[in-house]
Amino acid sequence: MPHPYVLLSAAVSLDGYLDDTGPDRLLLSGPADFDRVDEVRASVDAILVGAGTIRADNPRLLVNSAERRAARVAAGKPEYPLKVTVSGSGDLDPAANFWHTGGEKIVYTTEKGAARARAVGLAADVVPLGAELDWPRLLEHLYDVRGVRRLMVEGGGQIHTQLLRQGLADELQLVLAPLFVGDPDAPRLFGPGPYQGGRLRLVETRPVGDVVLMRYEPTAPGGRFPSAADHHWLALACELAAACPPSSTAFSVGAVVVAADGTELARGHSREGDDPVVHAEEAALAKIAPGDPRLAAATVYSSLEPCARRASRPAPCARLILEAGVRRVVTAWREPDTFVAGADGSGVLVAEGVEVVVLPEFEGRAQAPNLHLLG
């Protein structure tokens, strides 16, 4: 199911704390970074904070720049992003700044919490998610009902932890402040695991005033939702397709096999090496030892739907994927009838319980090295 691009934003001390235990909020960044955050806020459709952050910090969560607000309106967007909070109990102060500044507001809560939130007359849309908070359902609702495509999450640490542990974050923007807190009772950014996935990929680092901004993306394949990592690996498969030796009788395809922790296990492309008929998935899987335990939780990324039938070899790629034990495939493009009529590799895989995800936004990239075959 589609969901918004989820961007986590936070500032921490050098020893990993969000705040100290004093009566006033610890300011971890300065004017230059506040302006950067304002720019990010202006670029998103919604901003989310937890109920604990509303109680502790009483934030307004506004786009402060009049020019940025005007640019949003000129682009057909509301002046301010939708403001979102999450509270299992529904224990929210109707006098908080959150409800009385900016544009529309929405509260996600439980069935019990909804009754409490409505009773105090919050100036917001109250959406119950069931007996417990359900993050995938929340994100689906934001996408499908509220039209949110980019969601900025500003805290607190418990919210960030929950999203990362469930593999629902697409980007982490972390600001590192040049100071130490050193108080074990102070709030930390991330709580204990287990977390899904392995190492994050560093995509940017730059100084902003006296702090340092670091932007990370997960490397682990997505699950219920396509993730930023899925986009990264499928883009790589499309790059591999462009590296195939040209052919007038076969498609150019690239493939990458990625373990659940984001480790690349192998890659391949059509007509790789000295084999003029090898397929991309076949080339990649051949580089992994049969029975490798990581295959059961791995994802195969292929620029073209794995073939269900082929003339050059007895085993099509869909069958090779099943025999390897892989249970998830991400592709950009369904196989046309150019060489094999009625091919349905995805149907073969789905019939055997494999999850197949198609990301049509990559179709153009996957087709690019094959345009001479498509008429």
Secondary-structure blueprint:
Blueprint (H helix, E strand, L loop, with lengths): L4 E8 L18 H13 L2 E5 H7 L8 H9 L7 E6 L9 H4 L4 E5 L1 H9 L5 E4 L6 H10 L5 E6 L1 H9 L5 E6 L23 E9 L2 E8 L9 H15 L11 E5 L5 E6 L10 H6 L13 E4 L14 H8 L3 E4 L13 H7 L3 E4 L4 H5 L8
Parallel strand pairs: 1-6, 1-7, 2-3, 2-6, 3-4, 4-5, 12-13, 13-14
Antiparallel strand pairs: 7-9, 8-9, 10-11, 10-12
Helix pairs in contact: 10-11
Describe it.
The chain has 375 residues and is α/β, with parallel strands linked by helices. It has helices at 31-43, 51-57, 66-74, 97-100, 111-119, 135-144, 157-165, 228-242, 280-285, 317-324, 345-351, 363-367, and strands spanning 5-12, 46-50, 82-87, 105-109, 125-128, 150-155, 171-176, 200-208, 211-218, 254-258, 264-269, 299-302, 328-331, 355-358. The chain has a nine-stranded mixed beta sheet, sandwiched between helices. A five-stranded mixed beta sheet has the order 11-10-12-13-14, sandwiched between helices. A hairpin with a 2-residue loop joins strand 8 (200-208) and strand 9. The model has no long low-confidence stretch (mean pLDDT 93).
